[in-house]
Amino acid sequence: MRNHADTSLARKPEWLKWMGACLAALAILLGSLGFNTLRLSQASAAELTENIITDASVTKKELNPQDYTTQLDMGFKLPNGIHSGDTSTITLPDDFTFNANLDFDVKSSDGHTVAKAHLDAATGKMTLTYTDYVESHSDITGKISAAIRIKTDKVKTYGKKAINLDVNGKFVPAGEINYGPWNGDNPNETIAKWSNTDYNTGTIKYFIRVSARGEDMKKVTVSDTLRSAGMSYDKSSFKITRGKWVMDLGIKSFVLQNGTDVTASTAINYTNEGYGGFSINLGDLGTDGYMIEYKVKLNHAPLNGEQFKNRVLLNYNDKTEEFNSTVTWQSASGEANGYNYSIKLRKTDVNGRTLKGAIFSVVRDSSGETVGTITTGEDGTGSLGGLLRDNYTITETTAPDGYEKADPVKITAEQLKNDAKTAEITVVDKLEEKTSVKVTKAWDDSDNTDGVRPDSVQVQLRADGKKSGDLVTLNEANHWTYTWTGLKAKNNGQDIKYTVSEVLPANGKYTFKVTGDAVSGFIITNSHRVERTSVSVSKVWDDRNDQDGVRPSSVSVQLYADGKASGDPVTLDAANSWKHTWGGLDKNASGKAITYTVKETSVPHGYTSTISGDMASGFTVTNTHTPVVPPTPPVTPPTVPPAPKKPQLARTGTGLWAITIAGTALLLSGAAFILRRKDRGQRNTAANR
């Protein structure tokens, strides 16, 4: 029974066998997947053991406690078969470290990002973490540059210091530097300047030391100028300290003692000199000195090896001293750079013929700085070197005679990336389009009636508002017209707007107005307001108020200018009160005053005509008529018939009146006679006495 029972227990159902086989296969599959996943994960994060550095060197080999940085340049070649996430570590020797903690891209020779680099200034390690680019490419090469410094706080001995790199456990020599003592500050120094670079913030901090030797300085002014594009002052960073500079013999350097911060009370005057500047008037210092500190910001990401220049002037005691500073940007990059790239330009026309005399400006796009010019020579080529590998704009500023300037040309950093480190371009100019402009003079001055028209005038052609060429004279000889030919039609691809203007005659009698355009021609009209006058006439009748009734109802009067009839005769009659005024008359003719007169066109029958007055007071035309007086008939006294005889009457009053008169006369005659005799007697008596 036991054996039977055992046998039955040993036998398993078929479905159980099948399930077990499936579970076993699943376990094997999961195990295999887990192992592969682990292996892939481990591969993607593996630290390479190979040495990737093919060559290494430093640019500056003489260092001291005050000048302690240099640039490390390394070439690399990656082994094939590495994976995204793999890393390499490059460690500096103990006496050196990196200038700052930095992250940047490492690029291949064809410009692709190969790895992400991280610099750790505390440990002196550079870690490269590779991208997926390495999985699809082989035989990858490139260059890495980084600023390194000697640890002045640690290295206390002078001499040669070897720079042996630890690359994944392999040592790679990068040469050696000579670390020597610093000679110290100049004890006779009056002005000095130095800087520190903050690669993390992209700023440069400057220090200006004034009057370290303690000379009695008067009328002191410090003037600073930025001399590279892309630099600007951080106005909030200024700090000005006054004190006394004392030489510390232990460190061979000046130390400012008893320093007082005078920033708030010191005026900083900013200027536009160079790329910006400032000046500070410190007045009379005596034996005191100053420390001026400030930061400069950069408006672009500097390239490794890029230089930034600055100058400070010290004016004192009627003297001037100058100190120049050049900061070379030494951070890190995935490619070697430096001022060792060139642009070569070839200038031709549309037919391929080379052209000389073209001038181009070269502007670095990132900073906006004009870094130089290129002028084509006899062979039509020109070049500019000493460039950083960056983007540039080439602009033709002067085209060869007879040609239009070409459009600006862009040069990219990639175009400079070749063994020759040179970008070569060809710029083609088109023949210059020409045009002409005509000007004609017109006069609005009543045919020069006042005689003030000049013999000539001068006109100026202008192109886009600017004078073009010399003044041109218009006169009778050239029929008061001129045409400019062979003029440029375009400037930088834009139509040139031509205009003309006139230099007013010296006598100031004319104004001018310009009409027309460059296509149809310009007309310059000179206008002069002609002097005008007026003449009046009035009719007077001397005919005893038309006693004879022969006065006409109207008369006709003619105006004469210098003896010639001027206009039509005018009618004078009772309706216009026998008056008329000619207005708007020319005062002059050919520069001479006109003499105006009037004359009656037909003297009325029976009248005579006389004219009096003048142009100023007016003319009077007097018509005279003497009325006819009939003869006086003889006067015949009337016949008086004889009076009838009357009877004789006694003489009464009439006769007595006659007697009285006769008697009175006789009496008076007698009295006169008596008086005469009496008077004669008195005169005789007087004579006898």
From TrEMBL:
Membrane listed as a keyword: yes
Region (Disordered): 627-648
Pro residues bias spans: 628-645
InterPro entries: Adhesion_dom_sf, Collagen-bd_Cna-like_B-typ_dom, Fibrogen-bd_dom1, Ig-like_fold, SDR_Ig, SpaA_PFL_dom_1
Occurrences of domain SpaA-like prealbumin fold (ranges): 342-425
Keyword Membrane included in the entry's annotation: yes
Protein name: LPXTG-domain-containing protein cell wall anchor domain
Organism this protein belongs to: Scardovia wiggsiae F0424
